[in-house]
Write a structure and sequence with these properties.
The complex is a heterodimer of chains A (105) and B (174).
Chain A lengths: L10 H13 L4 H17 L6 H8 L7 H8 L3 H12 L17
Chain B lengths: L2 H26 L2 H17 L1 H5 L6 H19 L9 H13 L5 H15 L3 H11 L5 H8 L3 H23 L1
Helix pairs in contact in B: 1-2, 1-4, 1-7, 2-4, 5-6, 6-9, 7-9, 8-9
The chains are: A mainly alpha (105), B mainly alpha (174).
């Protein structure tokens, strides 16, 4: 929101700029993934999992294959929590069941 | 870390991530770099939690910004080209629009691509302020407080940015 700018001077441009700003904001699922990863890294005193991984997890339609998840599934409860939150964003996961067991290949 | 600390961390993140992300996007011009830097910033926060607790709440944004600037400096040492000529943002916008909104016309997509290019061409200080305004959803007063300049200067620069973008778009139409 830019209520104190000279929007009236460039009315057509302003709507374009507002749309541009909206499209370039972090989406809620992206922001959530970044926060969780920072928490994860901080708690374990480890380097964070790559942002690419979080993006794969949180960006619908996420290609969450068992091959992608299996090595990461056992990391710790933060990964499981991340998955739970990812599910909360209504990402369809036909390859996983709701109990968060390690998926079979 | 206790649940209380985790909750405080979450609250801190919710309060400041949008502005920090906008700042980093304005500086890098790249959503992925900005996201990575935002994440690194908060990893650093987590690791220096004791420092944070000594900082008054109204100064915490500046402390976070200082960390983000350091992360940015590290990145700049690694890669010399920020705001690439073939803008990553432009490509991302095309991808987003193709994937997320197929009904958008080719004309609209082209217009957005040209707008992104025009923003990329802005001088760094104008681009940063515009990004903080549009992506960070900040008022001129907030931007002024963050960048330590008067709100009137911010408004002037926002106007300059709009004039410049408008001229670039008109020039491209000819």
């Amino acid at each position: 929101m830019t209520p104190d700018t000279d929007a009236q001077e460039f009315p057509e441009l302003e709507s374009l700029l507002m749309a541009w700003g909206k499209e370039n904001r972090l989406q809620p699922h992206e922001a959530e993934g970044i926060c969780l990863n920072a928490l994860h890294a901080g708690n374990l005193t480890q380097e964070p999992l790559s942002y690419q991984w979080w993006r794969d997890i949180f960006t619908p339609p996420a290609p969450l294959s068992p091959a992608l998840l299996a090595p990461l599934w056992q990391v710790d409860r933060f990964v499981q929590e991340a998955m739970a939150r990812a599910f909360a964003f209504n990402i369809k996961q036909p390859t996983l069941n709701s109990t968060f067991s390690i998926p079979s290949k | 870390m206790s649940p209380t600390t985790t909750q405080t961390f979450n609250n801190l993140y919710q309060a400041h991530h949008r502005v920090l992300y906008a700042y980093l996007l304005g500086q890098t011009g790249d959503k992925e770099s900005a996201s990575d830097l935002l994440q690194e910033t908060f990893v650093r926060v987590w690791k220096h939690w004791d420092d944070l607790e000594r900082i008054p709440e109204d100064r915490r944004r500046f402390w976070l910004l200082a960390i983000a600037k350091n992360r940015l400096r590290d990145l700049q040492r690694k890669q010399t080209t920020l705001w690439r000529t073939e803008s990553t943002l432009r490509e991302q916008l095309k991808t987003q629009e193709a994937a997320g909104n197929p009904v958008k016309s080719a004309e609209t997509q082209e217009l957005h691509a040209r707008l992104t290019e025009a923003i990329c061409q802005l001088p760094e200080n104008l681009r940063l302020i515009l990004t903080l305004s549009l992506v960070g959803e900040m008022t001129s007063a907030d931007i002024g407080a963050l960048l330590e300049m008067p709100a009137t200067t911010v408004r002037h620069k926002l106007r300059q940015a709009r004039i410049s973008i408008s001229q670039t778009l008109q020039r491209d139409e000819i």
